[in-house]
TrEMBL record:
Mg(2+) binds at residues 786, 810. The keyword Metal-binding applies. This is Pyruvate, phosphate dikinase. The lineage of its organism: Bacteria, Pseudomonadati, Pseudomonadota, Alphaproteobacteria, Rhodobacterales. It catalyses: pyruvate + phosphate + ATP = phosphoenolpyruvate + AMP + diphosphate + H(+). Residues 562-911 form the PEP-utilising enzyme C-terminal domain. SUPFAM superfamilies: Glutathione synthetase ATP-binding domain-like, Phosphoenolpyruvate/pyruvate domain, Phosphohistidine domain. InterPro entries: PEP-util_enz_mobile_dom, PEP_util_C, Phosphohistidine_dom_sf, Pyruvate_phosphate_dikinase, Pyrv/PenolPyrv_kinase-like_dom, Pyrv_kinase-like_dom_sf. Its cofactor is Mg(2+).
Length: 917
């Protein structure tokens, strides 16, 4: 006993009292028949590795029982002693239980462990406990136990482990004799505290304020428990264990836990298993302690023994900040386990190497040394950064432990985008001030500016800035290039800011409409009401869609050899092409660096956003007659020709698909007074005239108005100029290298006749250029299928097209009747309330829009069997959407340059899975 029972006011007969209580409450649980008990041991072969270990360590009362059981019936999968042949599987018992079974099979020194299935734990949560004797019979009567969660995927989390179950006054007295008073006190105190806080759910402050060692502290903890719980601290292992199991099972069913794991991808009905394990104490005589070891660095994935060991400790104490922990391997920075206990360390290293090889994964091992003897308590997959996940997978394959195909499956495609961009460090504190749509990945910090001009001034001063806009337009392009990140109040995943952001690798959050954007006052008000002004430092996390105050710590992007190796393996496996959407030479270079197989979409209108060009473009739009227009177009021609020459040169040997001019013309017109004045000056017209013309060109619904091929039909000179620029660039680039075969794509087609008319003019331009230059060339003409009608009439439209590329941004907009620029306002409500499972501009709606794609593809192939089919909307970079395109028989997907690696990996995974299944 504690020696001072009177002083702490504890009843002298407390243990007895508890036993009496238990007799009434819990004894029903002890009524398992001998036959039933035998069932549990049925499948155990004699002399298993487990037995060898148990015999060697004198642990596990189960061993003797195993040897004496010979029943032929199946073991109970619900409460199962973890033996090599026990019926344990990850989907029924969780990853931890399965891993422990594998360790047992490897003959590693794992203490006796019982696994409780998901089904059992669910029943416990609903009030139906298994008999405690069913569990306890496997352990020595005086064993201390711990319980740990075992969910199907360790990333889904679970309640924390509870150690030292079974500690009571009697065990305390006995252990004080054998291990010494200090060790016994620590064991008991630790258990009381964690039981009080996590099981009895008493106020943590009351127990956190009690010291972590000493008999005084122990007495105080017992007294506090008794006062708060209004009962003495439970004394029987059966009651303690039952309460621990119940509290862990209920914690898993709680709403917060459920939401947290669902956010990590767990299904609604994800189960929890529990493992009950005999403790190897880590406290007591001889060298005792606990630690954690892994063979790789979690941040980089490089091979490096990592972890700590702490004498006289339990659980993960060694990892606690400020603990006097030892390094594992000899280390110039301080003492190590290797020096302290060379034999145990050598064994540990050997076990870790065996686990890596046989479990075919990098594992983190929790171990205990008890009086010099090593015990392996647990193994979980090493937590890893995205960067480490690539290096680990490639490393395992290069060491012949897994195949390159398996390595491909082990890296989450979306994780790759983290490698390509700066990210906020995982453990950095985040002061989130607003949320929106994660439109372009990566993170960046800067001072807030509220106009493109201010962004450029910031850049000129060498000062990083974040551009804050209601939404962006072509006029903001220069500001976007100058900014480190962009945040907009409006817009969705395919809005201007989002598309440009992804194209140039600029972190971007759009549709942050729950914040208040006071652009005139140059002020941003956070969702919780805090005001931020121009010049204040904020951070945009375009990967998570969050706006943060201040400058959290960042992690730099890194493309190392492992990344390149993985990508090469991906390319060897995948069977669908991956191109990039690239509008500028810089985009094209990025696409080339990421090994895109060509450009699938060059949005030519983006080429006119450059300074100097915008004015000429405006002059062209304002031209009074065809003659004036031709004069402006003549100025634009050499610019376009130079653009295309540069693209063809960068992408040499690969296809470049150029989309003819698409957007509503008025998008190129100024919207503010300064812009109107500039244009008036350039045109030598009064501002009032210009203003009137701009207003006259306005449309009620510009996205369905004068844009795309409709411009090509009504103002054909624009397409003529573009075709000429393409052909002249083709001739000039082919002169000093392989012939270039350009692809020309007509946007927003809805009728066969549109294609006929445009095709006739482009053919005429081609003939003219051929005869003027005396040089022959070929080109491919294609149609962008982005209206529902184009899909439905694909068989006839395709008669005039070599290829059909589905523009799923507009197709989604038109299929849903949902403005792609305004969807951000209500999309999060729609997704939250389950109206849409996901933002359809982000993940392809395979039911509705997908139906149109399927129809379009089938009809196109029926009309022209060898037509090339592809997708060039933003969905081209989304793994699930790529799966759809591959299944529908598309030839390639085209996505933003920075998403190309992700698409290559996602496509490879689909091919590998097909081969396996
Ligand atoms: C589309 O509509 O899917 C597309 C790629 O074109 P844009 O986004 O330029 O309209
Ligand atoms: Mg479109």
């Amino acid at each position: 006993m504690l020696g001072q029972p009177a002083a702490v006011g504890k009843p002298a007969n407390r243990a007895l009292t508890c036993h009496r209580e238990l007799g009434g409450i819990w004894c029903q649980n002890f009524s398992m028949s001998a036959e039933r008990q035998r069932d549990l041991f049925k499948a155990r072969p004699l002399h298993t590795p487990f037995q060898a270990y148990s015999a060697q360590t004198q642990k596990g009362a189960a061993v003797q029982k195993i040897e004496s059981q010979t029943s032929a019936e199946a073991p109970d999968p619900d409460v199962t002693l973890i033996l090599p042949a026990a019926p344990i599987a990850t989907p029924t018992h969780g990853g931890r239980a399965k891993c422990l079974q594998r360790l047992v099979r490897l003959d590693l020194p794992v203490p006796c462990t019982v696994a409780l299935s998901f089904r059992t734990v669910l029943r416990i949560a609903h009030g139906s406990l298994p008999g405690m004797a069913t569990i306890l019979q496997h352990f020595d009567d005086d064993a201390l136990l711990c319980v740990r969660p075992s969910s199907e995927d360790p990333d889904w989390g679970g309640p924390g482990a509870i150690l030292n179950i079974g500690m009571n006054d009697a065990r305390y007295a006995a252990l004080s004799e054998t291990l010494g008073s200090e060790a016994a006190t620590n064991l008991y105190l630790r258990f009381i505290k964690s039981y009080a806080i996590h099981v009895a759910r008493l106020d943590p402050d009351l127990f956190d304020s009690i010291a972590d060692d000493g008999r005084q502290a122990l007495a105080q903890a017992l007294l506090t428990y008794e006062e708060e719980a209004e009962e003495p601290f439970p004394q029987t292992p059966a009651r303690q264990l039952a309460e621990v199991l119940r509290s862990m099972a209920r914690a898993w069913e709680g709403t917060t836990a459920r939401l947290l794991r669902q956010a990590k991808g767990a299904p609604v009905d994800a189960g929890l298993g529990l493992v009950v394990q005999e403790m190897a104490l880590g406290l007591g005589n001889g060298e005792c302690g606990s630690g954690v070891l892994q063979l790789v660095n979690s941040e980089t994935g490089a091979l490096q023994i990592t972890g700590r060991y702490l004498s006289q400790s339990q659980g993960r104490d060694a990892l606690q900040r400020g603990a006097a922990s030892l390094f594992l391997e000899r280390d110039p920075r301080g003492p190590s386990l290797e020096e302290l206990a060379p034999e145990a360390f050598a064994q540990l290293k050997a076990h870790a190497a065996l686990m890596r090889k046989r479990l075919r994964a990098e594992m983190q091992i929790e171990f205990t040394i008890e009086n010099g003897q090593l015990h392996i308590l647990d193994g979980v997959r090493v937590r890893r950064s995205s960067r480490a996940s690539v290096r680990i997978a490639v490393g395992l394959a290069q060491d012949g432990i897994i195949t390159p195909q398996e390595a491909l499956l082990r890296v989450e495609p979306r994780a790759l985008s983290e490698l390509l961009h700066r990210q906020i460090a995982e453990d950095a504190p985040r002061d989130v001030i607003g949320k929106g749509i994660a439109a372009s990945p990566g993170a960046a910090t800067g001072r807030m500016v509220f106009s493109a001009a201010d962004a450029q001034s910031s850049a000129a001063r060498g000062e990083a800035c974040v551009l804050v806009r209601r939404e962006t337009s072509p006029e903001d392009i220069r500001g976007m290039h100058a900014a480190s990140a962009v945040v907009t109040e409006r817009g969705g995943i395919t809005s201007h800011a989002a598309v440009i952001g992804r194209g140039i690798g600029l972190p971007c959050v759009v549709g942050a409409s729950r914040m208040k954007f006071h652009l005139r006052r140059k002020m941003l008000v956070s969702e919780d009401g805090r005001s931020f002004r121009e010049g204040d430092i904020i951070t945009i996390d375009g990967t998570k869609g969050e706006i943060l105050a201040g400058a959290p710590q960042m992690v730099e992007p890194l493309l190392d050899d492992s990344f390149q190796t993985l990508m090469a393996w991906a390319d060897a496996e995948r069977d669908i092409g991956v191109r990039a959407n690239a509008d500028t030479p810089a985009d094209a270079q990025t696409a080339r660096n990421f090994m895109a197989q060509g450009i699938g979409l060059c949005r030519t209108e983006h080429m006119f956003f450059e300074p100097g060009r915008l004015t000429v473009m405006r002059e062209m739009i304002f031209a009074d007659d065809a003659e004036d227009r031709r004069a402006a177009l003549e100025l634009l021609l050499p610019m376009q020709r130079a653009d295309f020459k540069e693209l063809f040169t960068i992408m040499r040997g690969q296809p470049v698909c150029i989309r003819l001019f698409d957007p509503p013309l008025h998008e190129f017109l100024p919207t503010d007074r300064a812009g109107l004045r500039d244009l008036a000056e350039a045109l030598d017209l009064p501002v009032s005239d210009v203003t009137r013309r701009v207003e006259a060109m306005g449309e009620y619904n510009p996205m369905l108005g004068m844009r795309g091929v409709r411009l090509g039909i009504t103002v054909p000179e624009i397409y003529d100029m573009q075709a000429r620029a393409i052909f002249e660039a083709t001739i000039e680039t082919s002169r000093d290298g392989d012939p270039v075969v350009p692809e020309i794509m007509i946007p927003l087609v809805s009728a066969k006749r549109e294609v006929e008319i445009v095709r006739a003019r482009i053919d005429a331009v081609a003939s003219a250029v051929r005869s003027e230059r005396g040089v022959d060339f070929t080109y491919r003409l294609g149609v962008m299928a982005e209206t529902p009608r184009a899909c439905l009439r694909a068989h006839e439209i395709v008669q005039h097209a070599h290829f059909l590329s589905f523009g799923t941004n507009d197709l989604t907009q038109m299929t849903y009747g949902l403005s792609r620029d305004d969807a951000g306002r209500f999309m999060s409500d729609y997704v939250h309330q389950g109206v849409f499972p996901e933002d359809p501009f982000h993940r392809l709606d395979t039911d509705g829009v997908g139906e149109l794609l399927r129809i379009g593809a089938e009809r196109a192939r029926a009309g022209r069997p060898h037509v090339t089919l592809s997708i060039c909307g933003e969905h081209g970079g989304d793994p699930e959407s790529i799966a759809f395109c591959r299944a529908a028989g598309f030839d390639y997907v085209s996505c933003s340059p920075f998403r190309v690696p992700l698409a290559r990996l996602a496509a490879a995974q689909l091919a590998v899975r097909d081969k396996i299944e």
